[in-house]
Amino acid sequence: MIRIDCPYCGARDHTEFSYGGDASVPRPDIACEDIKAWSDYVFLRDNPRGAHSEFWHHVNGCREWLIVKRDTATHEVAAVLPARGNMP
Amino acid sequence: MSAAPFRLKTGGRIARERPLSFTFDGRRFEGFAGDTLASALLAHGVATVARSFKFHRRRGIYTASSDEPNALVSLGGGGRHEPNARATDTELFDGLAARSQNCWPSVNFDLMAVNGWFAPILKAGFYYKTFMGPTRGAWRVYEHVIRRAAGLGKATLQRDPDTYEHGHLFCDVLVAGAGPAGLAAALAAGRAGARVIVCEQQPRTGGQLLDQPADGPGDDWRRRIMDELAGLATVRIMTRTSVFGAYDGGTFGLIERLFDHVREPPGRQPRQRSWTLRCGHAVIATGATERAIVFANNDRPGIMLASAIGSMINRYAVLPGRAVVLFTNNDSAYDVACDAARAGAAVTLVDVRRQPPAKRSGRCRDAGVAIIAGHGVIAAAGRKSVSGVHIAPVDASDDTRFLACDLLGVSGGWTPAVHLMSHRGARPLYDEGLACFVPGDMSPGQSAAGACAGAFALSACIAQGLAAGREAAGLCGFARTRKPLRTSIEIDDAWEMPIEPYWASPVNGRTKSAPRFVDLQNDVTISDIELAHREGFVSLEHLKRYTTLGMGTDQGKTSNVAALALMAGLRGCAVSDVGTTTFRPPYMPVAIGALAGPRVGPRLQPRRLSPMHDWHRDHGAVYIQAGLWERPWYYPGPGESLEQCYIREARQTRKTVGLTDVSPLGKIDVQGPDAAEFLNRVYINGWKKLAVGKARYGVMLREDGIVADDGTTSRLADEHYFMTTTTANAGAVMARLEFLLQTAWPDLKVHVTSVSDQWAGMAVAGPRSRDLLAGLIRDVDFSAEGLPFMGLAHGSVRAIPVRILRVSYSGELAYELYCPAGFGHELWDRVFGAGADFDLVVYGLEAMGTMRIEKGHVAGPEIDGRTSAGDLGLGRMASTKKPFIGSVLMRRDGLRDASRPALVGIRPVERTQRLSAGAILCEPGRHEGHGIGHVSSITFSPQMGCDIALALVSGGLAREGDIVDAVFSMRDETVAVRIVNPVFFDPGGERLRG
Amino acid sequence: MARIRSALHAAMVPGVHGEVADEPALEISEITNRDLIQISGWPENFAAVERRLNEELGIAVPLSFGMAARKGSVSAFKFAPQKLWLTGPFTRRLGQRLAPALGSRLGVVSELGHSQTMLHVRGDAAGELLMRALPVDLDAGVFSPGAFARSAMYNIPVLVHRPGRAQAFDVFAPRSFALSFWRSLQSAALPLGYRID
Fold first, then answer.
1. CA atoms within 13 A on the CB side of C79
2. pTM score
């Protein structure tokens, strides 16, 4: 059970959240027409062992999207931030 | 019934004023409250209680704890039948009925014992070696026999009549184990003001203190501590509660056995409860398990762990033998020797160490114990139970002599219970001096105290417990202590002499072929370990899986360390180099029912109901599960089948008017100055020009260009839109919109709020729908000009505000009515009532489906995560003037490939032939590979009078008119079908736009 | 106004249920006549929204996450940045009153008064009952008067609120889930014993 310290709801079980994947990949602007930029964004992901910055959506709480820095080997959570304002 | 011959007249912690009666294999016995099944059986001299796993050798009671490998019995009957219960931790209650397992016809005369004759070939890995090459086919014959013989207890297929619960707990400090270290830790943490939860597996607190003679200094100390704990309001003690797993984030799994110790739970109480506990810091005080020394025939009934004999004497007032031999390599067994001698046995203690501990030897000699130093037990003798042992000097294994005995206690040392500390990956370290594994680096949020940390003396346990409890409370922010913490116990049980590592006695000429068991439960012997070593399975993980050692219900708790040490010996390396296997939860067997708690049967998932649910139920609806929703599927008349019914409902709707419940649709409130821009970005079509009071159909793509969802969005006001989504995707769409607004477009001033539960929705469809509604909702102009197709109006019915959308899923002249959910039932009732004059029919999901297929509308089976807008014939909806989600990747080559399957309609060439959903479409006669497409949605069309379907076919409508085969291999079915336009009915949409 | 039909229509049977010696340690009732709206604002001026709430309704501001602010029969629950729920009697017409008072420059209002079923659970065993399913610490020292949490029970999203000093909680569950929620809560309450008035 990973405990995620939601900035608005407090520490909660990860089962209240929905996992949203790698949060370190910059998203192309809506107006970007470059097919490679979109393709890289949609399809290419690293799979690191260790520090990982990832999205979690607090669906059964405040419904805010958060960025969690989690170690993929130990599940230790180093930080939890609101996604808003902390995007790569 | 005669008195139990091995029950001591005084002493123990049983309640002699409460006798109980129980049965074992149908024989009736008496015991007392406070007994376990094992102690009561030993009191009556029952030696053989089980047969071993492979060889069906007689086995007796080995331990006095939950680590028991041998004495597994079946309890209860009917739906309460429980196999593989340990007699040693089964609390005795009046009427308990236990049965032996894994034997036939009886435990005392077991025909399966013939397996023992095959011992030489039933070695580790024998399946693999035996059924190879030409004999491989023989496996098919023998598998059936072997499967039936395998396993220990049998599970029941009857329904469990008991209920189970689950709950959540929070505290600052968790203390796992309420022996001396745990109680001390709880005291220290509780005095500091922390919220403490103490979990004790046994019915009473005390741990190893309960193995001391009753009413001694151990009990004094225990009572003092319990009294003080009772006065600390923030301390909660949970007995009969095991901590079975340590998980990330300071989370622990607990099982509370509420009513296993009585015949059945009273009233409506649950039998067991599992808990998810979250704490700030945990003090692990789980104690240590004794282990044995391996020698020939070391599995005879009457051979026990030495400490188990001590427990039997001091807890249960049972001395299971009259001539006792104790075999040891450490000081602990000396205390048991004294207890046994004082209880009246003739005791001989055999110590492999040449120098026995002085003080303990003195006490033993005073009690009449004979001590033989520098010797070891080479073999046990006896057939049905132990009759004696052959001992020899440690360095001269042929120089044996025989000691008669009827009870042998073995102590090879102690193994700290490091499981909870290791569940999160922390590895224990081997301590050469103690000859055991002790905690290494601790997992975050945990500390260890007492025997589980390698402290075997009581005073050390208590001191460590106090320190750990204080530290744990401090780490949680509690440092207040009223008075200095000092508590001592007047028992000095520290070891005088160190343990001498001694894992197995040597063999001599006579004992060479006798089995020397390492893992009793899985019948794994030293020769299995030697075989594994010879065949190269030398890593511990391989050894475990090749020999199955440690894989039984006891997880090898009394045998793993010896196996490790023996493999280290074979490999010629240090024990610490062999390592340990991975420790995984649960620590002991856990009933799956307890983990499931209430989430079984109808409560496995929640159900969602429409505001009109009661009406549907009262009018005979048959339901279908659509995700979490329970929806009316069809409303059968007397004797009507599903097919007859939906055909009637759809036909009537297209003839006069139909009413259906669309409340489960996803509904999202979109508001803000940038609402239109937002819609422009998420839908493929344009929204800036949609006027207030108008609705539009929209399609959403994923970023990769695949269709995600479709729905209708209407403009209620300048900056206020009402979006609908498909029922199945409502949650996913909402989450995506929130993701986009919070992460990609935080500057857009628009909010999305789910209003799915706020609104009840119903569709009124059919040629007479206008007339019906005009008569019912007087404050709205329903004329074609007043409320055109895709228009929006607001009205009311008897003070119920109604939002009216002129949209159509059925292809008929139709309106969707929305009102606040609490009025839904009443509005529906009024529409239904008004419908009497118009031959209104209520229709369900099936008829709804039939009509949308007749109109070629795509739904879930077509929007399946593989189709693009182009595939579905919606490509021209996509705007070329503005960017939207998916607009770039929808242009990728893969999605533009002309051979992609695209939406078509199909009908059987021979009208009366039936189609199968999921059929693969193939060129006629060329049924190979994945074909050229597949059938996505089928129905019998009342309008066409035959089966029709929507399908995706390579080439799409370019192949209109072609005949292809619809192949359904599972039924060996091939139907010739013609590719047609997917809009089967009213292709011009005249009914729709009237 | 037309009558609002409860999602638990006929499902809450008055009387004492389950295992009880004499007085049950649990009382459960449905809260009716409570309206609910959501106000969603913008980061640069949400303080002004809170001030407007203070002016219109007398609610103490600034609002904190996880702590409801109450004035009379109206309560405000700020559950996310620039988002709050407001409850009060239907007669107060909260949505109709506040939408123009705010205007979209300050924030938007969504009517949610029919979307939740609301229960009141009171008694010594109230916290124990809810924590059978709620993974949130309801201990009085941690979840003090006014505290609220959005979480899930039985896989159903809920809001749990301690309105005052007593051992009593309000629980909101979405209307479509309400009957399922009630059945699960009932099962958990039976071994404890409960009364419905």
1. 25
2. 0.94
